[in-house]
Amino acid sequence: MADRQQNPRLMLSNFLSLEQCKELEFIHKSCSTVGYRPSVFSTTLSHLIATNSAHLIVPLVLIREKLKEKVEEFFACEYELCIEFTGLVSWTKGASIGWHSDDNRPYLKQRNFAAVCYLNSYGRDFRGGLFHFQDGEPTTVKPSAGDVLIYTADNRNVHSVDEIIDGERLTLTLWFSRDGSHDEDAKLISRLSEIFSSEVTDVPGFNLPLPASSNMYWFSPDQSSDHDSAINICCARIYALGFGICPLEDKTNFLDVSDLLMKLLQLTRNNGLFNQEFENVLHALQVVQYYSWKASELQGQATILEEGKVIPLSRSQSQKVRDLESACVKDCRLAQTTFGCLSCDRSGTPEIFRWGSFSAAVDAWRDYTNELHKDLLRSLPYWRNHQLIFHVAFDEL
Ligand SMILES: O=C(O)CCC(=O)C(=O)O
Ligand SMILES: [Fe+2]
């Protein structure tokens, strides 16, 4: 490992389990918006709260805590650090960053330490995207799912990331600060308190995702803001997993396709229509991503598909599916190179698709969501008391 004084940094292998990586991948692929740099997508905790998906913070809580402990221990911090920023970040074809330190802007000076957790792997999930330090050892880091890289944010750790050639490179990135006024927890807890103060959290649909402003979901590789060349990232991710989208309403009633995506819609695959309505595109995306996460598990279970749950697509429905696809993804190749899987055509889902397994995933997603939501509501009073987001070990209380 590097000289501790000259280049204070630490690499930990298998810090996260592959199952944790998969869960964070599910969260990111269900919730991401266009990010802060070209061809970069991000999911911040405040975004999760803003889109009615605050419960998805729960799987991150223990991971954040363990990372903070590691950083404090390795850098022998005298006082407790605060977490300044937590984000799931993915980089796609064309994204890169040249030599920099993470505190290299006046508004970033509060950043003292960084932790980058790799959630997928170089060579398998993406090509390009190697990490380099300008000085000291290791010179190059090959991202591998579960590993974490920790370093100081100052100029003793100048680094760069090679351009992504193919695939989607995914990380969980945190920055830590010694300056408590930059604590993201305080802001997040105050937002959570506002939302959950009304106590009307048990009504059906309370935790269905609610899309943010529509421009956060349109991506164009050349950064032009017009929709002509842009693809809708929620739709593109659904298509990349082999599904189609059939809106319930007629598109002629809408000026903008983004409005149509906010309304009820159904999922299709080949010539079948899954006979259940989803509130909006984000709701459908979350379920599809959940299926993709759990597919191999679900595939092994015996499932019975309810009669009438999948019906043949009518001609007019097929037309609606095609119309929406061409409005949301003008350039199929762009969608495929951005969100497609490296080693397969239509990724994530097993070769044999069964609606029975998908139907089981819809129920399992609801149970998963309800469990996390309960955890969140139970934890929130403790978080408020301590002004800290931490894992509350209820079994030991
Ligand atoms: O993802 C990485 O490996 C590092 C990213 C980075 O350098 C940054 O976001 O500042
Ligand atoms: Fe960086």
Automatic annotation (TrEMBL):
Alphabetized InterPro entries for the sequence: Oxoglu/Fe-dep_dioxygenase_dom, P3H, Pro_4_hyd_alph, Pro_4_hyd_alph_FE2OG_OXY
PANTHER family on file: LEPRECAN 1, PROCOLLAGEN-PROLINE 3-DIOXYGENASE
GO molecular function: iron ion binding; L-ascorbic acid binding; procollagen-proline 3-dioxygenase activity
SMART domains per the UniProt record, alphabetical: P4Hc (SM00702)
Limits of the Fe2OG dioxygenase domain: 82-178
Short name of one Pfam family: 2OG-FeII_Oxy_3
The organism's place on the tree of life at top rank: Eukaryota
TM spans (from-to): none
Keyword tags: Dioxygenase, Iron, Metal-binding, Oxidoreductase, Repeat
EC number(s) recorded for this UniProt protein: 1.14.11.7
Protein name (record): procollagen-proline 3-dioxygenase
Cofactors, names only: L-ascorbate; Fe cation
One example of a Gene Ontology biological process annotation: collagen metabolic process
